[in-house]
Design brief:
The chain is α/β, with parallel strands linked by helices and 296 residues long. It is 42% helix and 17% strand. The chain has two domains: 172 residues, 3-Layer(aba) Sandwich (Rossmann fold); 117 residues, Nitrogenase molybdenum iron protein domain (Rossmann fold, 3-Layer(aba) Sandwich). Helix 2 crosses helix 5 and helix 5 packs antiparallel against helix 6.
Amino acid sequence: MYRLIVILSVLALILTACGGQPASSSGTTNSVILTSTSFLADITHNIAGDRVAVEALLPMGADPHSYQPTPQDVTKIAQSKILIINGADYEHFLEPLLENAGGAREVIEASAGINPREEAGSVDPHLWLDPNNVIIYVENIREALTHFDPEGAAVYQSNAEAYIAELKSLDAWIVEQVNQIPIEKRLLVTNHEAFGYFAERYGFTITGNVIESFSTDASPSAQQMAALIDKIKSSGAPAIFLDASDNTTLAQQIAAETGVRVVTDLHLESLTDGPPAATYIDMMKTNVTQIVNALK
């Protein structure tokens, strides 16, 4: 069952502006389905098809860990009927937006039902980097859309089944690609602690992280930097992998000390406007290709 949070204090004016009618027999609704991130918008669109409009709150390339909301974000939330979020303590920026938006909407946690990784009391929200977790996202979103638009149940079910088949094919493709890398060379050094689920699924070892946090909104100490340099030298890890939105300064400093390569064009938190990561599946394939090429 998806997690449902009903935001009270219904404003008639907002509901009128949003269009409060259920799905029509022609197979469309006037209500916007809003998602927190672009990759969630793509996943949702694969299930929703043309029955509902799907829009991402964050712009392409935005880092949810450090995103600064705008007044326009409040308006988008106020006009939404369903807000789909990742959950697992990912979207902290949303809390003041929900307080200020008014209106009523269902907030759906796509990751509901998955037991997240925890470390030092913090939850790792990066569940989508294992496509098998995204299958659960799909089921939660399908159920939410069906609840919102019962007439579209058959469409949502069919679309969900087709997309789940694509996700299973993606998982098999990743296994095939990763198998090109000997186990002892499956070493990941990343900007922040984002690859835990990916590593568990595909047999990687996390050698270390520039930022020892599940969020990019943190800073390493000099001692942490020195320890990471020692880990890289002792393990033989050949590269540091960064998201395209990450600041490269610290990674470049570590690379200068260790002689490793810095790979700067992964896409972990956001899709791109067109290639190379225009969809969630494209995003995963791009990341895996970059990792495999750097490590094999």
